[in-house]
Structure formats: structure tokens, C-alpha cells
Amino acid sequence: MSPILAISGLSKQFGGVTALAGVDLAIEEGEILGVVGPNGSGKTTLFNVVTGVHRPSGGSVLFRGQDITGLKPHAISRAGIGYTFQQAMAFAGLGVLENVQIAGEHVRARADSTANPWPTPQALLDFVGLSAVANEKAGVLPFGSLRLLGLALALATRPSLLLLDEPAAGLNDRETTALVGLVRQLPGHGITVCVIDHDMKLMQMLCRRLAVLDFGSKIADGPTEAVLADPKVLEVYLGGDL
Amino acid sequence: MRAVDIFIQQILNGLSIASVITLIAIGVTLIFGLTGIINFAHGEFLMIGGIVTWLAVSAGLGFPLAVVLAILAVGLMGYILERGLFRFTLERPTNGFIVSLGLIVVLQHVVVLFWNPNQKSIPRPLTTVWEVGGVRIASVRVMVIAITIAVVALSFRMITASRYGRALRASVEDRDTAALMGIPVRRYITGVFVLGSALAGLGGALLIALFPITPFTGGTMVMKGFAVALIGGLGNIYGAVAAGLILGIVEGFSAGYGFSQWTDAYSFALMILVLIVRPHGLFGGTSGPRMAS
Amino acid sequence: MKEGLRQDRAGSVFKALRSLLPVLVILALIAAVPLFSPSNRFLSLAISAGINVIALYGLSVLFGQTGILSMGHAALVGVGAYAAAILARDFGVGFWAALPAAALASAVFAMIVGIPSLRVGGHHFVIMTFAFGQLLAIVLTNGGDYTGAATGLDLAGPVTLFGADMSDLTRYYLMVVAFVTSAAVASWAIINSSYGRTLRAIRENEKLAASLGINVGRHKIGAFVVSGIFAGISGVLLAYFLGHISPSQFSSFPSIYLALMVMIGGARLIEGPLAGGILVAFLPEVLNLDPVQSRIVYGVCLIAVIMLLPDGLIGGIVRALRAAFSGKPKQETQQRGAAEAQR
């Protein structure tokens, strides 16, 4: 089966600095893939290039065989790739329900939508456990709830692939566990997930497969246990999170 | 007069206009570029400088003393307004901009209220006109150009070479880090604002030495100041001087060769064009300090 | 569950309608004013205020909903006014045909200004709109006979509706009230539609909005164009009311006053533009101020509103009233308590 997202030879230079040096990565339909690497390894650049925030200097990104390289952020989202940010999670000045309503209004229906109607904004709030605060302003929510609202927003765009950039940053253990529980359910609803983070504990909970970036190149890719035992990876993380 | 004489004449006229524009533009480029405050009332600061000069000269004081008074008065006004108003808008520049629009209306009409809306002028502080070849050089224009050159050189040294200037640029790069390094960022912002205001006061004094002014003179002047600051690149004094020269000379020529009704259009048209093609200005600059938005 | 959802939806429609009600009541009262045989001076002032309010409703969509400030808005009004005058002079086009034509002209001008200005983006945008406004005034002044140069253009066409001459002051007043009502309803409809939600999303966070599939650039230009339509209609009404227009009416300083009015009233509330337009027009009459004094008062008001009441005067009053009477804060704590309990 061909991968849902095929990244090949993707590179990005900022001035003279190489942030991505020809990365190849395939995300398979239905998996939860983790992309890890220390700070400055190119994780966030990879995320930004795939989601259209930056234009790549070279290489290509194919989504279900379709070339989406260099598309604008809103076009990426409309093509069926949802994504969440570390920072901007929700529209603080608007109501919680209104947030999710907005998120569902600008994307085309998925091909399988007739057989399998997408959950309503209300149902999405139920899913992430925020329906009790549906009429509050998003800005008054505690940080953990904001993260969950961010997830609901991304889900409302009816993605078949969801990219999460450090989804658990700033969450306590209880909140992280809740989030992991939610993300694990997503493949069952036909959503492939790619998590970008440096938190190995989270990755071990979530992913069966890991790809490791260092200095803008992929240095390992495979089943989580094998990758974690890889001496190259251990060297990168020596004295780090492991 | 020979064509070449007229040409040189226009360059001189252009240079003196360029001087006043450059003084405003440096104020704008420093304040907007380094502190992020968008003060559209900067033109009114200039106008107040002119009015103070006019009042002082009318009261019988000499022009040099009047200039000093104008600089001090407008500098003080800048201090009060920064401490009282703009300081609270640093995180929301659009609010600061709106406040400055309110200030425009208030300052203009306070002047009208006390000193009527008519044109005001002072006798030329220097009346000598030199004749070199066929070219007539008014000494007052030379004075304006010379003062501007001196002041620009001084400000440039202050910003680029002094310890103060280095700290200032550090705080533009990253306000929080600069604050952590013990740089009193807020005090520096006040300092820049007062410096820019004082330059506007000087500009007003020099302007009224050249032309009559009205309480509404600030409006077009501030647009030229912003145009020059943006064309030159925000926070870039070199750029402001270069762009001010270009604009002043273009205006001088177009007035001298019979297109005077379009002079005000050049700055706007040029600014719009530059911002579209090169958003960071012709000579490069900051894009304004990073702002919370 | 489904039942509850439907009730919810009906509830939100009801809530939206209720937010329109105060404005409609106020406008109905305003429409009844001619019964008390007001002076001509009052009517003229009210007509000018109403014409401004129409443009302000457009500005409130742009600034209040989308969060974009235009400092060249009077220029868009001017395009509408000049379009009406030139159409009448050169093509014999009357008032009613001029309305859509002028709205289109202003919308196109808004697009021409908007595309490069929004490309520049951020805080430079306001400066760009200001510069375009100034530029338009200069172009109109130098337009020779075509634009009437600095003296401007005369417009002496009658305004008729179903055969009745509307040029009479009272009738023109009622017509303007009708236009203001349409503008208020149109702006209310935008605020409560999914389009309004989209604009608010852009106001709150452009990056997040784009990640949800919203074409931010196109919608920002769209909001600018929508505000241009309101401005164009306001320009036609102004040109036919005054019978004479000139460039200085549409330069940057009238733009500042428009921004001031929307700010004083509060840009996010449906009552805001109406309140701002009326306050700024009638305050000098009430306080018996001469034009110079009243402008100083406006300027001080604008600064005070921005520093102290960021939601505008009406927004501030509404909030204070809510806090004082309806016990809204208590309700909020109850809700939060319930949310906590659920967890």
C-alpha cells in the first residue's frame, strides 16, 4: 500500500543555514508515527514546510499521491491534513463552541462522508470532554483544556492525516494521559497521526514507529524499541531525555 | 539665468526642504523602528515647534534662543505624552496609533483655539543672499542644511557608537532578553521618544524659518516623514537621510519645473511602491520591533 | 439529545434577533422625530450623522469583526460620491441607478487599495490606507474639469421615490433613516453568519485561522470590499444631500473622524456605529461648543476611550450595566462550577 504522506528529499535553507538536508519520510495509512529529535534538529522546520508555513528549498511532499509541495497553509488544511500548533491553540476571544464551528466551515467534505458522517462540533467537544464549557470564552479555559480544544479544532477540519506539534508541552501527567487516550482512538476513526516531539516518554506511550532527526537529517526510522536501542540515537540523546 | 544655474538653484532649494523632512523622518524612524510606537501626531510635534519659535520671536527673543525653546518645549511634551499615554500602548501598537490620531486633532485645535488658524511666519533670521556665478544662495537655506547635517551626525553617533545606542539596539532585537540583561528598556523607550520629539521641535523651528506655517502643516509633513522612514527602512538613520534627500530633491525639482500641484503625491506614491516591492525599505531596516499581536 | 440541539439552535437565533432589537427600537424612535416638527438645522445634522453611520457600519465589519483598521475610509465614501456626481453629469444617471454603480466603484477601489496594502500587512496596513486616502484627494484636486479640481462638483439631480420628490428635508431624513436601518440589518446579518465567524477568527488569530482552511488574505480583502460597498452608498447619499462635493471632504482627516466615531461607539457592537455617529454629530449642539472646541473634545474622548474603554463607550456602558444589574458574573461562576463538578 502506498503511504498516505510521502516526503522525499525535502530540504530547507534559511540564508546559509541548512535546517533540513534532504529528508525522506513515509507515513503509512492508519499508524501513529513519532518524529523525534533534540532542539534544533529540524523537527519544527519539517512541520512548517509540510504545513505550508515555509516553502521548501527542494524536494517534494505527496499526500495520497497528490503533489502538495509549497501549497499555502489553508490549502494544506483543505486538502485533508489537519495540524495543531504548540502556541496558537484556539481563538481566545470567541466561544468554545464557536471555535469548533469555525473550524468545520472551511473544508471540503471527505470522500467517505456519506457513509460515515463527520461528528458535529458539539460531538467533537464531547469527544475531548469540553462540552460543559461550550458557551465559555476560550480565553478563560485552563491551559490543559486549551490543548484539548486545539485538538478538537484540528479534528473539525475532517483530516485524514493529523500532524501534532508537541501536543503535550505544558501538560501535567494526568492531562498527558488523557490526551494520549484520545489520540490513540484516532486511527480507529480513519485518521492517521504524526506526532512531532522530543518527549520520549510521550512517544513511547503513543507510537509504534519512530523517526529520528538530527541536524536536519533522518538518522533512524523503524519500530520504537529498535530505534531506542540504536546506538546512533543513543548518542544524540546521551544525557538527554532517555 | 542659465539652465544649469536654475538646476543648481533647485538642488539647493530641494536640499533645504529635504533637511526638514529628514529631521521628521529620523524622529519617525527612531520612534517607530526602535520602540514600535506609531505616532502620527509627530507632524503636530513639528508644528508646535514652529509655533513656539513664532511665539518666542514675536515676544522679541532672538532666533537661536527660540530654536532652543522649541526643542525643549517639544521634547518636554514628548516626555509627558510618552509617560502619560504611549507607555501604556506598547503591547498594542494599533491602540498607540489611534491615540496619536486623537492627539493630532487635539493639538491642532488647541493651537487654533489660542492662536487662530491663520498662517504664521517670522522674519527670516538670516537675510543675506549670496550670488555665486548666476546662482542665488539664500543664507537661511544654508543654515538649515548645516544645522540638519550636524544634528543628523550627532544622532547617528548616539545610536550606533555609544553604549546607550548598543543597549538600545539590543532591546530592539529582543525586549525581554534585554530586560533580563539589566537594560532599562522602558527608560530607553522614553529616551528615544524624547529624542525624536526634540528633533521634531527643531524641524518645526527650521521650517518656520523657511516658510509660513499653519496649525495644519503637520498633516502632510508627517506623511512625508513616515514615507521617508519606511522607504529608508525603519530604524535606519542612513536610509532616512538618503530617502529624505531623494524626496526633497524630487520635490524641489518638480516645484521648480512647474509640477508643484503634484509634489505631495510623490511621497505617498513612492512609499506605496516601496512597501509593495521591498517591505523592509530600500536600504533595509527592522520591520519594527517584534510585537505581541 | 437531538431535541436539545434543536432548542439550542432556536435559542441562538433568538439571541441573535434579540441583539438587533434595541437598534430597531432606537431607529423607530428616530424615524418618529419628524412628528415633533424639528428644526431644519436638526434635520440636516441628523441626515449628515445618518450618512456617516452607514459608512460606519461598513467600518465596523472591517475593524470590529476582522480587526483591520482603515484610516482612508473617507476616500471610499469619496469614490462613491464622485461616482454619483460624474454619472449624473456625463450619463444622466439618477440617484437610484447611481447607488449600485457607486457601491461597485467603491468596492473596486477598496480592492485596488486592499490587495497591495494587505500584502504589506501588519501595522503598515493602516499607514498604507492613510496614504491611499491622501493620494485620492490629491488626484481629485488635480483632476481638472473632470473632477472639478479643488472646487469640486455640483450635483443637482432630484431624488424621487415612486414619483414623490424626496429632496424635501423631512423626506430625505426618513429615507436616510431607512438606509441606516438597512445598513444596521446588513451588518447584523454579517456578524451572525458563518462569514462573520470567519472574519472574527481572522481577527483573533490569523495563523490558526489559516490552519483551519481559511484563506486569510482573500477574506481580509473581502471584508475591505464589503466595507467599501457601505461607504459607496453613503457617498451617494452625501453627494445628493449636499448637492456639492469637493476633495477636502474625503481626505485623511475626515477618515480620522470616521475612525473616531466607530471607536467611540464601539466597533464590535451592533449599537456602536449608530451611537458613535449620533454622539459625534450632536455632542457639540448639546454642550453648545464651537467647532474648534468640539474637535478638542472628540480628540480627548478618542484617547480616553482607547485608554480606558477598549470596547468603546457603549460597550463600556453595557458591561457596567451588566455587572451592576443582571448578575451575569454570578451565572458564569455557576456554569464553571458545573463544569468542575462534571469532571
TrEMBL record, chain A:
InterPro entries, A to Z: AAA+_ATPase, ABC_AA/LPS_Transport, ABC_transporter-like_ATP-bd, BCA_ABC_TP_C, P-loop_NTPase
CDD domains: ABC_Mj1267_LivG_branched
Occurrences of domain ABC transporter (ranges): 5-240
The entry's keywords: ATP-binding, Nucleotide-binding, Transport
Gene3D superfamilies: P-loop containing nucleotide triphosphate hydrolases (3.40.50.300)
A Pfam family hit: BCA_ABC_TP_C
Gene Ontology terms for molecular function: ATP binding; ATP hydrolysis activity
This protein's GO CC annotations: plasma membrane
The protein's name: ABC transporter ATP-binding protein
Organism: Mesorhizobium kowhaii
Species classification: Bacteria, Pseudomonadati, Pseudomonadota, Alphaproteobacteria, Hyphomicrobiales
TrEMBL record, chain B:
Family annotation (Pfam families): BPD_transp_2
Subcellular location: Cell membrane
GO terms classed as biological process: amino acid transport
A GO MF term: transmembrane transporter activity
Annotated keywords: Amino-acid transport, Cell membrane, Membrane, Transmembrane, Transmembrane helix, Transport
GO terms for cellular component: plasma membrane
Transmembrane segments: 12-41, 61-81, 93-115, 135-156, 188-213, 225-253, 265-283
Membrane topology: Multi-pass membrane protein
Recorded family membership: Belongs to the binding-protein-dependent transport system permease family. LivHM subfamily.
Name of the featured protein: Branched-chain amino acid ABC transporter permease
Source organism of this protein record: Mesorhizobium kowhaii
From TrEMBL, chain C:
InterPro entries listed in its UniProt record: ABC_transp_permease, LivM-like
Principal location listed in the UniProt entry: membrane
Pfam families: BPD_transp_2
Signal peptide region: none
Topology in membrane: Multi-pass membrane protein
Membrane-crossing residue ranges in chain numbering: 20-36, 42-63, 70-88, 94-115, 122-140, 172-191, 221-243, 255-284, 296-321
Coiled coil: none
One Gene Ontology cellular component: plasma membrane
CDD domains hit by this protein: TM_PBP1_LivM_like (cd06581)
The entry's keywords: Cell membrane, Membrane, Transmembrane, Transmembrane helix
A molecular function (GO) term: branched-chain amino acid transmembrane transporter activity
Subcellular location: Cell membrane
Superkingdom of origin organism: Bacteria
UniProt protein name: Branched-chain amino acid ABC transporter permease
